[in-house]
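For the sake of transparency, this paper describes our internal protein records without simplification. An entry from our holdings is shown next, in its original layout:
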Amino acid sequence: MGFLSIEDFSLQYPIARRDDSVVDDYHGLPIPDPYRWLEDTDADEVKDFVEKQANLTESLLRKCETREKLRGQITKLFDHPRFDTTFKRGEKYFYFHNTGLQAQSVLYVQDDLEGKAEILLDPNGLSEDGTIALRISSVSEDAKFLAYGLSSSGSDWVTIKVMRVEDKGAEPDSLSWVKFSCVSWTHDSKGFFYSRYPAPKEREELDAGTETDANLNHELYYHFLGKDQSQDILCWRDPEHPKWMFGAEVTEDGKYLLLYIDEGCNPVNKLYYCDLSTLPHRLEGFGEGNDMVPFIKLIDNFAARYHAVSNDGSHFTFLTNKDAPRYKLVRVDLKELSLWTDVLQESEKDVLHSASAVNGNQILVTYLSDVKYILQIRDLKTGVLLHNLPIDIGTIYGISGRRKDSEVFIGFTSFLTPGIIYRCNLETEVPTMKIFREIVVSGFDRSEFQVNQVFVSSMDGTKIPMFIVSKTNILLDGSHPTLLYGYGGFNISLTPSFGVSRVVLTRHLGVVFCIANIRGGGEYGEEWHKAGSLSNKQNCFHDFISAAEYLVSVGYTQPKMLCIEGGSNGGLLVAACLNQRPDLFGCALAHVGVMDMLRFHKFTIGHAWTSDFGCSEKEEEFRWLIKYSPLHNVKRPWKEVGNQFCQYPPTMLLTADHDDRVVPLHSLKLLATMQHVLCTSMENSPQTNPIIARIERKAGHGAGRPTQKMIDEAADRYTFMAKMLGISWLN
């Protein structure tokens, strides 16, 4: 459905070897997997395939005249100071700041808010290309030490190191093979809890981030400062459940250690606790043999999510979805577990998104109401509403404040607000939100743009919220290039946020940008999530397709001008919708997607996603998965309509060589399959629209990506979109 044909670019697709001998039996049904060899990313044949595909894509992009204009404008707008929410430890304040085009943000410290800020840790000096990123940062309670985790080339693997805050000197500590971990200090500042996996057997040879082995046997450790990692105290493991993951948190009063146990990505967990004062010598002596920390089981089933908000001694307040799919606050005394009481009952409509204990006996809560944030102060003991804090339509992206603090810092963003950090004094009779820092983008004028929210009827009548961002006062005449973005999974909500690339697309290419809040996310609580997962996954694709059809029907765009985009689970969304409705789209951008739904659970942390997708090893779940798995549903859709052929739209699959979350084999196998089935397996194929991939080097699933790589990728994918939709540059 694009304006350009493959002949315009003289694309010659690399021929990928097909091994027709690879056939798996799934519950009596033979399923061929001819590109199984692409799963071995270290093989020379795979490296050659990747290199040829990268060269092919570059040869196409090099001919796109908007590429440098896009790169230049995105760079220009990206070059503005950015700040994260300030937080306090001890008597010091900390925050992250990027001057504009720095590869990574820098951690600053100051003695007071009016004092001079000093650089505490600048990760930009750790690598020439900015690919070493700061992924974990945890300051001890007395603000004497910083434990920080570094990752390389976008990998999820992290190495934890420690430095002194006062003189910025390095401690000798170095902890390897850390993944999916937080760092929680004991209040004596002697050490911290963290989670890790056993070191791979090929430890010396491994390029961390390129391996695909399943991540199994997560373990919880305590590290004493100054000691070698081999002397760390093993606090918890469960070899009978190798797929479970463990995270620990020391309560704000320093008295309890909470152990959160997850079996997957569903919002359910087990919760154990330990009174730290009962441990002899504060953890020394544990970890030898099977003598682990003696946790007491508070919640010992995977029926609901529990997260501690605060405690007064043994009296704990939890945020939970137990019998409350839109969440509530409950309280229990650890000494009287038979009595649980509701502190803040579930809302009839809105989702209780977060709760933070602040200013003694108050809680700062956020709700999601039709995907828009509400911010309130309530009484911690009774849940009674004390104050509504006024905010614009947008997203609260960070709340920094503790129970001992009377002032809090609140981060806010929206489609037309780059970022505001508010400072709120809770001791005043009526708390006010005062601007502490405001992020300003030079040349951005919000009056040029408008934001609307509509509710689209899906195939079964369910109303799906969708945000639409465009230039002001556009005519609905079907003439506008439109970018539709979605995710729809894992209880994750897509809320309003500012994006430099979107501003450039809207201003200079006339693009209408849309976010569809489809089922599978958390926008309306756990029922909304479940309605788009497991056997209900097809609802996600129906919702997204319905959103696209709405944009055409009301006159924003037409199919040949409509691009769809999504990443990770959203990459799966885009690819599945391509297979189901190739006639509806003019371009597709699928980032780091889960494309092989029959084998995803075999690689790195993929086994955790079975909570949302199911698993092909179970026959009923296999029947769900095979119906929409992108890899297994590529087909020749074309048929003559008049003198035109219906074909797949121009498609760019994006992946990265160090993505150890959704490993690149997903995109590589789908790429080879699409090119074979659509483009090369028959003479004079009607598929003239390009099917290409952008394969990033020294990058991962997205986190920690240096600024220049983000700019270059955005320029490349939207250059492809602009060329395929035939969009002209607007000054």
